[in-house]
């Protein structure tokens, strides 16, 4: 069994010069990967891209920091894209209050995507930054898909993690769990049940040790696996099996 990356952005310009070479390595070393949408144009590109990539699946969505530039009247187009058989989730969507953007617009676009996920029963891929409490309260009162979804690149406390786990969400862990100063985040990994963990890279962002400062790659997900295995004191092959099962359970 090989590795899985449930969250990457290979269509971003960071790969324009060597995308085919990167894809060759991904296909050699991974069992599957999920290309994540970030706005309407990018989501269309995701749908077109995954058609010709046997190991690729995708999501479509409007990232919260792109919500201000999104015409809510075009939400039907996103829903149509989401009906594609190889689209396995809605997102990344959520709330990001780190940047100065219109919070009410973020809520409106987030709510529209939650409705699509519930209607099509496809899981949400959540981007949450500096808004965990607000996102939790919003989701707690929303009509959610039965599969719920994943809190992508979880980066808060165990207390926060437990709230989302209790709702039924998975937690996605990325390169930051390998950073020396992130002991608290590793405690979250340690306490999170195996059956709620998903492996991610967020490539080209958040490269793990020993690649900090460089472009991240989906094949570097193995360093995330290795750190999880170390934290949880489990054999890497057994971990591969567990994370494969989790990926299948949520997205397929």
UniProtKB/TrEMBL annotation:
Stored Pfam families: TatD_DNase (PF01026)
Gene3D superfamilies associated with the record: Metal-dependent hydrolases
GO molecular function: DNA nuclease activity; hydrolase activity, acting on ester bonds; metal ion binding
Keyword Hydrolase assigned: yes
Record-linked InterPro entries: DNase_TatD-rel_CS, Metal_Hydrolase, TatD-like, TatD/YcfH-like
Any one Gene Ontology cellular component term annotated for this protein: cytosol
Residues binding a divalent metal cation 2, per UniProt: 127, 152
Top-level taxonomic group: Bacteria
Keywords in alphabetical order: Hydrolase, Metal-binding
Residue positions binding a divalent metal cation 1: 7, 9, 92, 202
PANTHER family per record: D-AMINOACYL-TRNA DEACYLASE
NCBIfam families, A to Z: YchF/TatD family DNA exonuclease (TIGR00010)
Protein name in UniProt: TatD family hydrolase
